[in-house]
Amino acid sequence: MDDDGFDIDEPGPPCPACGTQMSPDGVDTAEGLESCHRCPRCKLAIVVPGLWPY
Fold first, then answer.
1. What Å distances lie between residue 54 and 11, 24, 31, CA to CA?
2. Which residues lie closer than 8 Å to 31 by C-beta, 6 or more apart?
3. Distances, alpha carbon 34 to alpha carbons 8, 40, 42, in Å
4. CB of 51 closer than 8 Å to CB of 8
5. pLDDT higher than 50, residue 4
6. Do 20 and 39 touch, CB atoms closer than 8 A?
7. Residue 47: pLDDT band with limits 50, 70, 90
8. Of 54, 26, 20, 14, the residue nearest 40 (C-alpha)
């Protein structure tokens, strides 16, 4: 678990679009690199802002 209270080693939530278990990942946004959960099936990403400081 990191300082923000997130455990990125745990599996992510179920995908709201298809129900598949989501995986922790990173995504490059206009604000910089952010943590996200990404669905391996439909590629939907849910961003978790502020998890990775820049």
1. 24, 18, 9
2. 49, 54
3. 12, 18, 20
4. yes
5. no
6. yes
7. confident
8. 20
Tokens of 32: 């910089």
User: In terms of residue numbers, what domain contains 35?
Assistant: 1-54
Cα distances from 22 to residues 31, 51, 53, in angstroms, run 23, 17, 22
Name the pLDDT band for 1 (thresholds 50, 70, 90). Answer: very low
Block residue for tokens 């849910």: 46
Q: Which amino acid is at 5?
A: G
Query: What total number of domains does the chain contain?
Result: 1
The single-letter DSSP state of residue 49 is: T
- The residues facing 14 across adjacent strands are 21
Q: Residue 14 corresponds to which tokens in the numbers above?
A: 């179920």
